[in-house]
Design goal:
single chain; alpha+beta; Outer membrane efflux proteins (OEP); two-stranded antiparallel sheet; 8 strands; elongated; disordered N terminus
């Protein structure tokens, strides 16, 4: 008979999962919260998205550069040789070495509101990038939860299949002993041998799945899974009603917020394109000095200051095409925003339904395990007095193993589905989970680079 110690137990009224680990007794178990904290700090997908957010931050100082002056300096030097012959036959010749240098400053005064709108569009893109980062954080944390729970489940299934194989081998030995004394037939022995072979195959498959789960754990969390502690669902922080969950998802999900910021940026880029039809006003000033410009002049100093007005009349039609293009892009962003909102709504409904179903599945699986255990005990007692066959015992034992695997899976699904619903409503975050890790603040990098006038090093020194 399969022992009770290897499978997961559902605590009455608590809804949490317990698992028996193969790690040494003295090893401190890693909790799900610790695994999530590690994934939050080291996951390469999340770190890449943070870098992408910092890239978008640079668009704001690039747009602000339109408000700032352009300064350029120039210098030139050379040799000028000349020979002149007059009508009277007088010939003169000479060599000069002219050189000059100067400084030019150009300040934009009016650019058809393009600089203002480009800055506002860049700021909207920054806000959208932050929401995209928050969405990536949710996806990474949810993947880490799934990887953690898969390791727990698959390790428990391996232990179940291992104990099932041991029990079947013991059953086979007992069957052979009774066959040797003439109490059973060769058919009984063959049935027991077939179940042993089947159990060996199931154990091999369970170990393969466990190895795959450990590989996913290393990928998503960044370390080898060792002894893992039980994990609880997060139902206490979830909305109790579907309508409340849908409202929370519409208001809080980062994918919806990112799409809305994308619409805002597209609207401003339409105005940027329309600015190409407006005049441009610049203020230009320059100072220069030339030495030895000719044989008769020693030096010349020059300073100028003037305003320049440029009115676009026709530029081949490219500006009109760019305006139409930006309007089509705006329409695309609005449609994408609607699609994103519908996708989030569908995810909330799906996750809410799966979580409700998983609660019932845990209860049903626990009842199935209890009933299957009682049935196995009864069949074994009846087998001892000759009222049951070997096949009856093998079938009852297989039903118990199947029930316990179903319970393990149902408990895993309940935890995963609770985190999936938390992600679907946009609240799967470090703060919501109260993880003991410093939250990444994208505002820090933004404030460091927003008003930077010069410098090629990034704030972290690269």
């Amino acid at each position: 008979m399969i022992g009770q110690r290897a499978f997961w137990l559902a605590a009455a009224g608590m809804g949490f999962v317990a698992a028996i680990s193969a790690a040494p007794t003295g090893v401190v178990a890693q909790t799900l919260e610790q695994a999530l904290s590690q994934a939050y700090q080291s996951n390469p997908t999340l770190n890449a998205q943070r870098a992408a957010t910092r890239v978008v931050d640079e668009r704001v100082p690039q747009a602000l550069a339109g408000f700032r002056p352009n300064v350029s300096a120039g210098a030139a030097a050379g040799v000028d040789w000349s020979r002149t012959r007059t009508a009277t036959g007088i010939t003169t010749s000479g060599t000069v070495r002219p050189h000059n240098y100067g400084l030019t400053v150009t300040q934009n005064l009016f650019t058809g509101f393009r600089t203002i709108n480009q800055t506002r569009a860049a700021e909207a893109q920054v806000l959208g990038a932050r929401e995209t980062l928050r969405n990536t954080e949710q996806n990474v944390l949810l993947s880490a939860v799934i990887a953690y729970m898969d390791v727990l489940r698959n390790d428990a299934v391996v232990e179940l299949q291992r104990q099932n194989l041991e029990a079947l081998r013991e059953q086979l030995r007992a069957t052979r002993d009774r066959f040797d004394v003439g109490e059973l037939t060769r058919t009984d022995v063959a049935q027991a041998e077939a179940r042993v072979a089947q159990a060996e195959s199931q154990l091999s498959a369970a170990r393969a799945q466990a190895n795959a789960a450990r590989a996913a754990y290393r990928r998503d969390i960044g370390s080898e899974p060792r002894k893992l502690a039980p994990a609880r669902p997060v139902e206490h922080v979830l909305p109790k009603a579907l309508n409340a969950a849908l409202a929370a998802g519409d208001q809080q999900h980062p994918a919806i917020a990112a799409a809305r910021h994308g619409v805002d940026a597209a609207q401003l880029l339409v105005k940027v394109a329309e600015g190409a039809l407006l005049p441009i006003v610049n203020l230009e000033g320059s100072v220069s000095k030339s030495h030895d410009p000719s044989l008769s002049i020693d030096s010349v100093s020059d300073a100028t200051l003037f305003g320049r007005l440029s009115v676009p009349i026709y530029q081949g039609g490219i500006e009109y095409s760019q305006i139409r293009e930006s309007k089509e892009t705006l329409g695309q962003r609005r449609l994408e925003s609607d699609v994103t909102r519908d996708e989030v709504r569908a995810a909330v409904i799906q996750s809410f339904g799966l979580l409700a179903a998983s609660r019932l599945q845990v209860e049903a699986a626990q009842a199935q395990v209890n009933a299957a255990q009682i049935a196995l005990n009864g069949v074994q007692e009846e087998y001892r007095v000759g009222q049951r066959t070997t096949l009856d015992v093998l079938n009852a034992q297989a039903e118990l193993v199947s029930a316990r695997v179903a319970l393990v899976t149902a408990q895993r699904d309940r935890v995963v589905n609770s985190y999936s619903l938390l992600s679907a409503i946009g609240r799967l975050s470090v703060d919501e989970l109260r993880l003991r890790v410093e939250a990444y603040a994208p505002e820090i990098h933004y404030n460091q680079v927003r008003d930077s006038w010069f410098g090629i090093r990034t704030p972290d020194g690269r």
